[in-house]
């Protein structure tokens, strides 16, 4: 067996393993949530049988449609690789121009445009079929495509200069281009942390300063108690797109902003909102944000280094049926197949995330009313139709947050 055939078989083996894992977890979770409709005692004061039934129906519907969506995505991957999609696109671009840099930019731009249209049916289905069926979607078709156009324009405005600079590094630093690219993209990510809340997010949502003076005063007192500097407390008009609820912090340093979904304010009492904010503050005080940032930088460093090694290996291209070798195609190919080979790392990163959530809950219980945090968690569970009894293996693999029942039990014991 030659080397190319061996690695092609390895690629197919990983696709099979990932697929078997996906389908097994999907079936296990579907059977679990449909055979366990009993509401845990701790959830009964907050979740009614009607709420639980809706959550089971919502999650069952999603689980039913996950397999065909998964198969569709695998077919798209095979189209680009084993069916010669990347080679065919490269051939077409070469008929337009022979200029190396322009050729590369056209190739990458064309790839992302085609890939966008290939993913569009799934986005439309999730928004206007799944979310609308269960009363979560408030997005109109007009607003949906308006958002898509804005996102596409931002991607071009930000993405093309980044791609150009990376390709320029490849040209002038043939050995260490990956290191310069890593440094540049890392620095740009820090810049984006500032750019996003200031310039990008307002293009999609309206952010207004909180007008509930009593709530504002209580939040400011909590921030002062925890010595947390914020540039303001804002309410986001999330309800114009979805009925899901959330809250988050955005920005960096003293420019950090607190953002509350309007749906969250309508769902929770003031004391419950303070408990949720105390949880989010816990992530900062426990240095979870910094840890995640460092983790991402380390992961990015090794990803760029691995990419630089693979681009020197013709076998990497040939094993995925890419015959016309180029750095540009190698970069696209790398990010196409990366998840196939690394899907097994998902439970590891989600375990770390769940650990952080428990720590943030424990922190919040010391600076807010523990009972109010528990009631807030269950109310959010109800509003988002989260499942109370997921299969343990499914939760282990996919859940970045512990189930609300586990979190509530941990809070009671703390």
In short:
The chain is mainly alpha-helical and 414 residues long.
Key traits:
Zincin-like, mainly alpha, 4-stranded mixed β-sheet, 4% strand, 72% helix, 414 residues
Description:
The chain is mainly alpha-helical. 72% of the residues lie in helices and 4% in strands. The chain contains 16 helices and four strands. The chain has helices at residues 3-35, 49-80, 85-96, 100-133, 141-172, 177-200, 213-225, 262-267, 270-285, 288-310, 314-319, 327-342, 346-367, 370-383, 392-398, 404-413, and strands at residues 207-209, 232-236, 247-250, 257-261. It has a four-stranded mixed β-sheet. Helix 6 packs across helix 10. The longest helix has 34 residues, at 100-133.
